[in-house]
Design a protein that fits this description.
2 copies of one chain form a homodimer.
Chain A: E1 3-7, H1 16-29, E2 34-38, H2 44-49, H3 60-65, E3 76-79, E4 82-85, H4 94-98, H5 107-112, E5 121-125, H6 132-140, E6 143-149, H7 154-171, E7 176-185, H8 190-203, E8 207-213, H9 216-223, H10 228-231, H11 236-253
Parallel strand pairs in A: 1-5, 1-6, 2-4, 2-5, 6-7, 7-8
Antiparallel strand pairs in A: 3-4
Helix pairs in contact in A: 1-11
The complex binds adenosine-5'-triphosphate (2 copies) and magnesium ion (2 copies).
One magnesium ion binds near residues 16, 40 and 44 of chain B.
């Protein structure tokens, strides 16, 4: 049973891309076959894997316009056990181009359908908005995992995201909230602990035990298009993403 | 000559909202009449001013549908010398609703036209995307100021933003790049200094001397819906935003 996970949050800069890449890499380290899907016109995930899109590569942009082509494609392998459907900056126009199509929120679901048998985990990285790309991520996924920054505005956005998830559950009944990850935690700041406590208070068991700490190694890894395990495998960022992978695996078997 | 400034960057979490509020407050402290415009369906700016939208208040949502109403409205005063056009979460549907309209990128310009005489500075806070709200911000502004996080992915997004600005300059010839602010700088991290140096290398004099440091006081202020000057007027965050206001004023007179 392939787990298709959307890492969604309309708030910007909360670690969606960093989590998609490093959670994916941690799952791959444990032998899982992982597919990463870049669904953000800013193509940060593609950049962070170090992958360069060549002439003729199938990107999410092409596939959103021609979903039937996915059954004959092989996503690019970017690491051991990690493949990628990349995107490019032309994606920026796709939202408008596709907004007229019937079933426009379910196109990614169609794209991923023939690919599911090849992977244990498909992780989808959407942009910071509740627009058509995020709706497609929620339409394709059977779980949404929400990275939530331990900052004051985080909980306000969560309610709005939950409303959108509820609406998408009507067209995608298999969609569940898989969990909430508290990210960018600075242990030395009282504010972060207060916000983290407030998140746990409100969302209870949905919240993973693992938090992702602020760790410059994670930002450095992005700069060098490396996973955290390639850049500094003993950093607190690496340890956190390994622990998170363990929890994600465990919840799937529960 | 009213300066209408869009604080634009499609990257998430780079400090657009924090800068709109605190740069605005710093300009107001120096006696300038400031209007803040919340153009983000997530309505973070509105939340951060502490303003609650009442039944019957005119929001950016209403005004985008009925721009002619702005000539008879009085934006809400939220602080000495600071007024606000707030928004609410219904804004999320506006992008789709307005996408069919002729001149859809210039609606905010029409809204602000009759209000210009009342303010020295109008600061516009758009969402993290290059969609219709950001295009309206660029269509209404005579300057765009770009907050750029001292993190690796920042420069990649800058090129894309500059392309969008160039396209909008064809429909709004008065639009100039007013400057780039390096934000969320952690002085103790080499990565931040490297990225800051790369930004200055590439963008030269466009980059403000002032950088906005990482300062938990700024995040705390958001939590309490206070400006940084109300929350901790001696913090490094407060000093930075005052310095930035000084530079912004100076560039306007140059
Ligand atoms: N735990 C962390 N510690 C330090 N830096 C981090 C951490 N997580 C992410 N970053 C850095 O913060 C920035 C934002 O992270 P990221 O791009 O993953 O967020 P995002 O939610 O995908 O943003 P967007 O909404 O723009 O897509 C990046 O430069 C990244 O390298
Ligand atoms: N210099 C700073 N030091 C510490 N925290 C900051 C700083 N600037 C912003 N923050 C915090 O970081 C988070 C993101 O900032 P902000 O909301 O201003 O960015 P944004 O670019 O408007 O995000 P979005 O793209 O989602 O609109 C907020 O919780 C804010 O309080
Ligand atoms: Mg991202
Ligand atoms: Mg904002």
């Amino acid at each position: 049973m392939t787990r298709i996970i959307a890492l969604a949050n309309q708030k910007g800069g909360v670690g969606k891309t960093t989590t998609t890449l490093n959670l994916g890499a941690a799952l791959a380290e444990r032998g899982r076959r992982v597919l990463l899907v870049d669904l953000d016109p800013q193509s940060n995930l593609t950049t962070c894997t170090g992958h360069t899109v060549q002439e003729g590569d199938l990107t999410t942009y092409h596939l959103l316009h021609h979903p039937e082509r996915s059954s004959s494609m092989t996503p690019k392998q970017v690491r051991d056990n990690v493949s990628l459907i990349p995107t490019t900056l032309d994606m920026a126009t796709a939202e408008v181009e596709l907004s007229g199509k019937i079933g426009r929120e379910m196109i990614l679901r169609k794209i991923l359908h023939p690919l599911r048998t090849r992977y244990d985990y498909i992780l989808i990285d959407p942009p910071p908005s509740l627009g058509l790309f995020t709706l497609n991520a929620l339409g394709a996924a059977n779980e949404v995992i929400i990275p939530l920054q331990s900052h004051p505005l985080a909980l306000k956005g969560l309610g709005q995201l939950q409303l959108t998830i509820a609406l998408m559950q009507e067209v995608n009944p298999s969609l569940q909230i898989g969990g909430i990850i508290v990210t960018l935690v600075n242990r030395r700041q009282n504010l972060d602990s207060e916000v983290e406590a407030a998140i746990r208070q409100r969302a209870g068991n949905l919240v993973f035990e693992t938090v992702i700490p602020v760790n410059v190694r994670l930002a450095e890894a992005s700069a060098r298009a490396l996973t955290i395990f390639e850049h500094d495998s003993h950093s607190i960022g690496a340890l956190a993403y390994r622990d998170l992978a363990g929890e994600v695996i465990q919840r799937g078997t529960a």
